Every structure is written in C-alpha cells, then in structure tokens.
C-alpha cells in the first residue's frame, strides 16, 4: 500500500496543500456543505472566478486559484446526485470526478491534493461507494503525487474510510504471501 495516501478527519479548508477539491454544484456558485464553506472562506474573488467558468457538468472538473484559503488552487468537480432517478451511471460519474480532478492537478503540476468525501453530503452518495471509489482512484494516481489526502469531516465517514483502506492493505498482504 502507498504511504502517499493519508486519511484524516479535518475541515478541508484548513489544509495547506497545492489544491483542495471542491464538491461543487453545476453552477459553481457555492451551495451547501463543503462547497458553501469553501466559497465563504475563499472570499468573493472565488465567486467572480467561478462565474467566468460557465458551470461544470457532472463528473467534470475545473480549476481556480485558492484566494483566501491556504490551498493554492481549488479544483471544482460535480458529483452525481444519488437520489436523482434520471441520472444514469452514477458510480462511473463519481469515478470521473476523481479522474478529471487528478488530471487537472497533473496538468497544473500540483503535487499535494486533498479530496473531501465527494457527493457523500447533500448528494447522498453512500459512504461505502464514496470510500471505495476515492481510495481506488487515489491508489491508481499515487505515483504522480507527493501526497493525496482524503479528508473526512464526519467521524463516521473517517472510521469507514480508515476501515476500508486498512482492509485493502490486509487483503494485499494476504494475496502476496508465497
């Protein structure tokens, strides 16, 4: 397992990293949960920059400066709404959030990136799906980054993420036995 991946319980807006990922809405204009907190703490310059991006499709990602945050950049991505019966391929769309966020980070030569539990708040992505996809995609991308931080705000999410990650490490050790 990779020691470049860290799972923490923290407010993502407090992290001093190259980029934090924002669980944004399609309009990129600040909403509830982590998105609203990021917009509030980053300041009005973030809203002005987001207006120029013309929104963001579900699964896609866009980048802005971090403004008043400790993070240099904010990568905005839109998770699928798990409760939306018209939205198809939800797991694939959530995976694309990570793929496209990592791609933007690489294109901008960012080495330390932090993700919240994308979609696990008001978009109702089950924490089991959130943890699985975020950890799998982080493992696939770990060689391209100095540090990938998976940030849980709620204690229950943190416990689930740690357990899932530790179970993966245990399974890897078992399968590598002679």
Shape: globular
Indicate the structural class: alpha/beta
The counted number of beta strands is 6
- Run of helices and strands: EEHHEEHEHEH
* Superfamily (CATH H level) name: Leucine Aminopeptidase, subunit E, domain 1
Largest β sheet strand count, sense and barrel closure: 6 strands, mixed
The top level CATH class name: Alpha Beta
What is the number of independent domains? 1
Residues in helix, %: 40-55%
**What is the fold-level CATH name, i.e. the topology?**
Leucine Aminopeptidase, subunit E, domain 1
Parts with pLDDT < 50 across at least 5 consecutive residues: none
Spatial sequence of strands, sheet with the most strands: 1-6-5-2-4-3
**Portion in beta strands:** 15-25%
Q: Any chance you could write out the topology, listing elements then pairs?
A:
Elements: E1 5-9, E2 19-23, H1 33-42, H2 44-51, E3 61-65, E4 73-77, H3 90-107, E5 112-115, H4 127-141, E6 147-152, H5 155-175
Parallel strand pairs: 1-6, 2-4, 2-5, 5-6
Antiparallel strand pairs: 3-4
Helix pairs in contact: 3-4, 4-5
Protein described:
- The chain is an alpha/beta fold and 178 residues long.
- It has a single domain (5-175), classed as Leucine Aminopeptidase, subunit E, domain 1 (3-Layer(aba) Sandwich).
- The protein is built from five helices and six strands; from the N terminus they run ββααββαβαβα.
- The protein has helices spanning 33-42, 44-51, 90-107, 127-141, 155-175, and strands spanning 5-9, 19-23, 61-65, 73-77, 112-115, 147-152.
- Strands 1-6-5-2-4-3 form a six-stranded mixed sheet, sandwiched between helices.
- The radius of gyration is 16 Å and the shape is globular.
- The model has no long low-confidence stretch (mean pLDDT 93).
């Amino acid at each position: 397992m990779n020691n470049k991946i860290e799972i923490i319980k923290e407010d993502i807006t407090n992290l001093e990293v190259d980029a934090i990922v924002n669980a944004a809405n399609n309009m990129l204009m600040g909403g509830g949960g982590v998105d609203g907190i990021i917009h509030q703490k980053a300041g009005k310059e973030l809203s002005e920059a987001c207006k120029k991006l013309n929104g963001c499709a579900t699964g896609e990602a866009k980048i802005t400066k971090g403004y008043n945050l400790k993070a240099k950049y904010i990568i905005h991505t839109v998770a699928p709404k798990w409760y939306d019966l018209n939205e198809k391929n939800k797991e694939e769309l959530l995976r694309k959030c990570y793929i496209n966020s990592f791609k933007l980070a690489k294109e901008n030569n960012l080495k330390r990136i932090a993700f919240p539990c994308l979609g696990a708040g008001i978009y109702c992505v089950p924490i089991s799906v959130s943890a699985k996809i975020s950890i799998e995609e982080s493992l696939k991308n770990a060689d391209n980054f100095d540090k990938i931080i998976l940030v849980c705000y709620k204690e229950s999410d943190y416990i689930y993420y740690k357990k899932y990650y530790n179970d993966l490490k245990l399974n890897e050790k078992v399968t590598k036995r002679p």
